[in-house]
Design goal:
Keywords: Isomerase, Nucleus, RNA-binding, Rotamase. By secondary structure, the chain is of the alpha+beta class. It has 16 helices and 16 strands.
Amino acid sequence: MSVLLETSAGDIVIDLLVDYAPKMCENFLKLCKVKYYNFSPIHSIQKSFSFQTGDPLGPLSAQSDGGTSIWGLLSGDDADKTFPALFHPKLKHLERGTVSMATAPHPSDPDTRLAGSQFIVTLGDNTDYLDGKAAIFGKVVEGLDVLEKINDAIIDERGHPLVDIRIKHTAVLDDPYPDPAGLREPDSSPPPSKAQLATIRIGEDEELLDEDANEEAAAEAERRRKEREAAAQALTLEMMGDLPFAEVKPPENILFVCKLNPVTTDEDLELIFSRFGKILSCEVVRDRKTGDSLQYAFIEFEDKKSCEEAYYKMDSVLIDDRRIHVDFSQSVSKLSDVWRNETNTKRKHAAAGGRGGWGGVDELEKWRKYRKEDEPVGDNDHYRMVHGMEEMRGRHGKDGARQRDGPRDHVPGRDDPSRKQADRPRDSDRRPDFRRRSRSRSPRRDRYRDGYDGRGRHPDDAGRDREHGGRSHKDRRDREYGKDRERDRDYRRR
């Protein structure tokens, strides 16, 4: 046994526990059947805990009586408005979506709690605080996302949502109970009463209007973003030279015709479209190399009206066994060509008059400064050098003379051999001072300056040494060595 509740936040399906709470399930089913809950507000929302509903007027109305049971509604007796609630020991508030009747203690018997029409739906798990205060009779099986929306609703200090959330319609999916006497099911949902309409704070329709306004604002922001992006792209094309200026717009008197038969010519299109007005130009675009038709064309009319008339009447017309498609031209290439040609002409005139501008113009190539007018250009002259041959020869001569003369002021570098030889320390510098003085007085150091060979022999002695078998040279060396030792001893004594 199930009941469908259509709320302004979404649909909720409740399964009824008829085996554990038969009387409360019967009361709830019959109230849904007679549309008693229609337009009932959802109130007392406690985040992640529960919300309450079931009173057609709600707690904000001064005319509210808190709701009544189906038996009190049929009989009209105040004693039948409530009935004793049954608390089954196996039913506990353990999970989200538990549905239970709101109860109040009996005036004369505090141990007995009475139920009417209002019920509670839990928004969180383990809400055992409600055990013994609310009698469970069902659970939500579909629409848990709706419970999330209700849980996230903006509420005031008393738990009432700022934007009304109401039960719009109820539908009984399965009813095992017989109808009590006097119950009549309405053919359609009744409209809300004046008392119910008076309890509206911010209606659902007003929220929808706000959402529509937000969507319109978002669409407007997206449109402005696209306009800025298009303007930036147009400015880029202008800087690259593809557009004459960024704000350029396609002409309104040119038609674009496509899906043409390859055999269709310019004259054919001009003859067909000329009945709408005077045609200034009609061109079928062709391949530059082969001359074959690319099957689209541009037709320029004298005025905008003729172009619009041709657009409305010539679309999908059969020409040469082909149904053509006609649209307004979005191309600005013709305007760009006109602008580019005019700009180039102005620049050439400015370059010719002022001897300036960009390189490559005819006046610049005729300057005697770069080449002679009467000098023919041969096949071997590929580069057309800027400097004349005389100047190049003079420069070559200057470079050759500079290389022959060499640098005037030579400063040895780190890798210069002469600098390395000069910087290398001599053996005499590393010896004691007395050794340096004694050797400086020795005639052996002067032999190398007087023409002695590398072995310490004079050239005149070399022949005599060869004659005497080399003994004279050895004796002379020994004598000189003895004299050096004697000088050293004399120097030490001093």
